[in-house]
Amino acid sequence: MRPDAEAIAEQVFTALADPSRRTILAELASAGPATATDLAARLPITRQAIAKHLALLAQAGLVASEHGERRRVRYRLRSGPMQVAQQFLAALARDWDSSLNALKHHLERNEGDDDER
């Protein structure tokens, strides 16, 4: 995996580690773009906390801000960084599967040796 892709995946995992940020992402995924005020009205999180979480989500590339009417900033999801993180996990799973399969085959080959003892 490219070093920059690994850095993106790390930022995504850091952002997803917080349950409030996962809640905000889920709300944006289900209801579409929203302002921090809109999100605060729908979630049990203060507007100030939502603004801080949105800043971190934006830094990780998971949301993008759009300037709307009356200088209101709306946030929408961005899928690119999440796809990079998914690719990172898929590569990791392939590596683990390969290692576990090699161990399984090794143990199966040596199983007969244990029976002879």
How far apart are the termini?
45 Å
Mean pLDDT: 88
CATH classification, class level: Mainly Alpha
Quote the beta fraction. 5-15%
Structural class: mainly alpha
**Biggest β-sheet: strands ordered side by side in the sheet:** 1-3-2
Question: Could you describe the largest sheet, including whether it forms a barrel?
Answer: 3 strands, antiparallel
* Shape, per Cα inertia axes: elongated
Radius of gyration using CA atoms only:
22 Å
Question: Helix segment count?
Answer: 5
Description of the structure:
- It is a single chain.
- The protein is mainly alpha-helical and 117 residues long.
- It has a single domain, classed as Orthogonal Bundle (Arc Repressor Mutant, subunit A), CATH 1.10.10.10.
- The chain is 72% helix and 10% strand.
- The chain has 5 helices and 3 strands; from the N terminus they run ααβααββα.
- It has helices at 3-16, 19-31, 36-42, 47-59, 80-116, and strands spanning 34-35, 63-67, 73-77.
- The chain has a 3-stranded antiparallel sheet with strand order 1-3-2.
- The chain is elongated.
- The mean pLDDT is 88.
